[in-house]
Design goal:
heterotrimer; A alpha+beta; B alpha/beta; C mainly alpha; A: alpha+beta; four-stranded antiparallel β-sheet; about 10% strand; B: 7 strands; about 40% helix
Chain lengths: ~625, ~180, ~120
């Protein structure tokens, strides 16, 4: 029943989409002053239809309707209700339906929110957004229909992958999609404004909200993915430079650049073309992300089971969209009224250009690192891996100039600033950060040539962003985000510098002494839980005069035989103690990996700060001061 | 003018990227090293499964014709599957050297006594390091190795099939 | 031109000491840089699979034999292909990989200089 409902609502949505494409195209060419009421009506019908379709899939998951192939492949009656629901988007078909749902809801909100905008501009935005929606609808109906029926109806589902049953992973995709899909509105709107010729400060103010919304969701989405990797994958890292992670980072760099550029457009009415280029690029990167992940062209931990026809479809669709935007850009470029404005070297405009320059560089490193292996393999058949050392080597040295720029860029004035006399506050802050860094660096033998300037500068930037809360005139949301960013860099650097670990084979009763700590394996308890066998170890970590216990676990699931290691992590404000163990073939011995990771929690907190700044900027209506 | 050049340049780049990605879709996602042909270090020493005697592996190879090396273990199900084909190879008078991978001596001997022993000699690899010398990633794997140049001529990852047999025979004939 | 870029790249990467997270024995450092070929997205260091365990032993053995890092990487690349190493070395195949971002950075810098009047 729900299968038919879901399926047919998608067809109705497609008809609505086709109607809206024609209608908006025709109306945009006529000189109508007002938006036809039908647009809101048909768009809301479409949104309702897609919502119905989405919820009929959710319902099929909740009642474990195994006549639905997607449910059969990805669910199981024994799953807790929460994971049954999140299972809806934990697979290729369902996640596309979610994309589609967000696409249509965003368009609907856009229409409600842009009453005051020019009619032609609105019509064109509808047109481009509907082209994207119809593309996804056809893609779903042709290659990834989530409502395929199975007969005879199986009595039990296949999907009970324990690794995927995790709260962070359950909400991670929807949040990330809100970010990705938000960029589609920016894309459609920027093409529409290109044709209708209304790029300017007014448009910037209007589109900035969407930039912020996408940016906040993308930031939080990336954070959740990283948290999941840290807690669940069980080898203690929070960023692996895995292609699928990179794919979410690329639009983030672009969106961060856009976020700053749009402010210049709003305040100074310049950088028009660059804003449009960034908007198009951001969305293309979000779409390429979908292509790279879904087509199976990448080799990664997270790729969905693949089917070449899907890859072909997304690739073609992506290139049609990019081609279309390039054509529109070049043929409407003359409509942009550019009053030649001088950019002075000491000005906020230049500072933002420099920010964009670095963002584009970071983006290019990640982009090239991710797709270069594919290109090389096609061109001469060699297979190479591009892993963390590549990204570290290229990105870390560039952090030094970036941190320097970031410490003074935001405080520059618009148009033209004067070279100030040496400010004693700044000098004091710099000396203090030198002192702090000196104290920190004497505590580790683990220093590299680059770590000295990096630590000094990140602490300096941190202090400057704290100072700005009291002195600077810029908006509170900007202060919070910049503070969050400097805290993030500082935490990552110190975390990298002071993390240490040991890896050893132990049996019950063994002790290992490590950095003045004694780690003891006290016992291992074997119990049978629902559908797995649990080996719970009990460790005691004694540190000079205090001690705490850690209980990591190994779970052995039958059918299919899967062994998972659940790390136990003791988190404090200062550090994480991460312990994970594995079964070895030699009887009685376990492989134990203990990691001491300082400031781990601050990596998460600082990212929340970054996102919170953006959120505040959306909510506060009168963010005029910059 | 310069605008048109920019436009055409961008268009061309886009088309090239499109074609490369299109081809990338059809590139096999086979990241095994089947095509790599490396030299085996023949000075390696190993223990025999049946006699506990330590020998130099170069003694096992026929200098004039290629030999087949098969990595196996009694605990590996696909090895059991491909065993019948190894017996057929033996019947074709092909020299097969077995490398017993991370196995208990008792189980390995039982395996061979109940199913038959296709190998001219079996050496043990208790810690898996000898298999790495052959560039193996797991069990079962089968190699054709030239006795003259010590090079791997052909590599099969995973269990052998009936079709592989003729191919192996052909390779051996060609390389005598 | 090619030679100059190559030289710049070379200088850049020799001075830029690679960033390792923890002080560790040499075995850990090397195995962290090796892909576990039968796992999904894990390094040999992180994995406890049969392949990874043997690989760690091989690396240890080679270090005890007094082999240099480069010799060990070359040995493994010879057996398993470039695919096994996470850190792609600078050669004809990867020249563009390392230089495209740097070229773009310089190019971006030039664009900004053109846009901004220095007075």
């Amino acid at each position: 029943m729900s299968n038919y409902l879901g399926n047919y609502s998608l067809y109705i949505a497609l008809i609505a989409s086709v109607y809206l494409i024609f209608k908006s195209y025709l109306d945009a060419n006529s000189e109508n002053k007002y938006l036809d009421k039908n647009f809101i009506l048909i768009t809301s019908i479409q949104t309702v239809m897609i919502t119905v379709s989405f919820f009929s899939l959710v319902a099929a998951f909740v009642i474990s309707d195994f006549s639905n192939e997607t449910v059969f492949n990805n669910s199981h009656t024994l799953k807790p209700l929460f994971y049954k629901v999140s299972g809806t988007w934990g697979n290729h078909e369902g996640s596309l339906l979610l994309w589609l749902l967000v696409l249509s809801i965003f368009l609907f909100i856009f229409l409600l929110n842009s009453r005051s905008q020019d009619t032609k501009y609105k019509l064109l935005t509808i047109l481009f957004q509907q082209i994207i929606i119809s593309g996804f609808l056809v893609f779903i109906l042709l290659t990834s229909n989530p409502f395929k029926m199975l007969y005879p109806i199986p009595s039990e589902g296949l999907g009970l992958n324990p690794i995927l049953q995790d709260p962070a992973l359950a909400i991670h995709p929807p949040i990330l999609y809100l970010g990705y899909v938000g960029t589609s509105i920016i894309f459609s709107a920027s093409l529409a404004s290109m044709i209708s010729g209304n790029i300017g400060d007014k448009w910037a103010r209007h589109i900035k909200k969407w930039v912020l919304v996408s940016w906040v969701f993308l930031t939080i989405g990336i954070l959740l993915g990283s948290i999941w990797a840290y807690y669940e994958l069980g080898w203690g890292g929070f960023w692996f430079w895995d292609p699928v992670e990179n794919v979410s980072l690329m639009p983030w760099f672009c969106l961060t650049a856009l976020l700053h550029t749009v402010i210049v457009l709003q305040k100074r009415n310049s950088f028009k073309e660059w804003t449009i280029i960034l908007s198009i690029t951001t969305f293309s990167l979000s779409m390429s992300g979908t292509f790279l992940v879904r087509s199976g062209i990448l080799n990664s931990i997270h790729t969905f089971a693949n089917d070449p026809s899907r890859g072909l479809y997304i690739l073609s669709f992506l290139f049609i969209l990019i081609l279309m935007s390039i054509l529109i850009f070049f043929f409407n470029q003359n409509k942009i009224s550019n009053i030649a404005k001088e950019n002075f070297i000491l000005s906020k405009e230049t500072a933002i250009l420099v920010n964009n320059w670095f963002m584009m560089f970071f983006l290019s490193v990640v982009l090239v690192g991710t797709i270069y292996p594919i290109f090389l393999e096609v061109l001469n058949g060699s297979k190479i891996s591009v892993g963390p050392p590549f990204y570290n080597n290229l990105l870390i040295p560039f952090l030094i100039p970036f941190l320097i720029f970031m410490s003074f860029g935001p405080s520059l004035k618009w148009i033209k600033d004067k070279l100030k006399k040496l400010n004693y506050n700044i000098l004091i802050i710099f000396l203090v950060s030198l002192l702090i860094s000196y104290v920190i660096l004497t505590k580790t033998e683990n220093s590299f040539l680059l770590s000295i300037p990096l630590i000094v500068l990140s602490i300096y930037l941190l202090l400057v962003t704290i100072k700005d809360f009291f002195v600077s005139k810029s908006s509170i949301s900007q202060k919070i985000s910049h503070f969050g960013f400097s805290l993030l860099i500082t935490s990552i650097l110190l975390n990298g510098l002071f993390s240490n670990e040991f890896n050893s084979n132990m049996k019950v009763g063994d002790e290992r002494i490590f950095n003045e700590k004694v780690v003891k394996l006290k016992e291992v308890n074997v119990t049978d839980v629902d559908n797995y066998k649990s080996l719970k170890a009990s460790f005691e970590v004694t540190n000079k005069n205090s001690s705490f216990a850690l209980y990591p676990e190994v779970r052995i699931y039958q059918q299919p035989l899967t062994i998972t290691s659940e790390a136990d992590i003791k988190t404090t404000l200062f550090s994480d103690n991460f312990l994970v163990f594995n079964i070895l073939k030699d009887d009685g011995y376990y492989n134990v990996r203990y990691q001491y990771k300082p400031l781990m929690i601050w990596i998460w907190i600082s990212t929340i700060f970054i996102g919170f700044g953006g959120l505040l900027s959306i909510i506060r209506k009168n963010e005029q001061k910059y | 003018m310069s605008k048109n050049i920019k436009f055409l340049g961008l268009l061309l780049t886009l088309i090239i990227i499109f074609i490369i990605l299109l081809k990338g879709l059809n590139v096999s996602k086979d990241y095994s090293n089947e095509k790599l042909k490396n030299k085996i270090d023949f000075s390696l020493n190993a223990k025999k499964l049946f006699s506990d005697e330590i020998i130099n592996i170069s003694d096992l190879f026929d200098k004039n014709s290629p030999s087949v090396v098969n990595i196996w273990a009694s605990w590996c199900a696909p090895c059991r599957e491909e065993h019948q084909f190894l017996m057929k190879l033996k019947d074709m008078n092909i020299n097969i050297i077995g490398i017993n991978y991370k196995d208990s001596q008792k189980n390995a001997k039982n395996f061979l006594s109940s199913l038959g022993n296709p190998y001219s000699e079996v050496i043990t690899d208790n810690d898996g390091t000898k298999s790495i010398e052959f560039g193996a990633i797991g069990v079962p794997e089968t190699f054709i190795i030239s006795g003259k140049t010590n090079e791997i001529i052909k590599k099969y990852i995973g269990p052998l099939t009936n079709e592989n047999l003729l191919e192996i025979k052909k390779f051996i004939k060609e390389n005598v | 031109m090619f030679k100059i870029i190559n030289l710049v790249l070379f200088l850049y990467f020799t001075f830029n000491i690679s960033y390792a997270n923890e002080t560790n024995t040499k075995v850990d450092q090397i195995t962290k840089n090796l892909r576990c070929l039968i796992c999904q997205g894990q390094s040999v260091y992180d994995s406890q699979s049969d392949f990874a365990i043997s690989m760690k032993l091989v690396v240890k053995k080679k270090i005890n034999e007094g082999k240099e890092d480069k010799e060990i990487y070359d040995y493994l690349k010879n057996k398993y292909g470039e695919w096994i190493v996470y850190d792609p070395e600078l050669n004809r195949n990867t020249f563009l990989l390392w230089s495209i971002p740097l070229i773009l950075f310089v190019f971006g810098g030039l664009l900004i200089v053109r846009k901004v009047s220095i007075k």
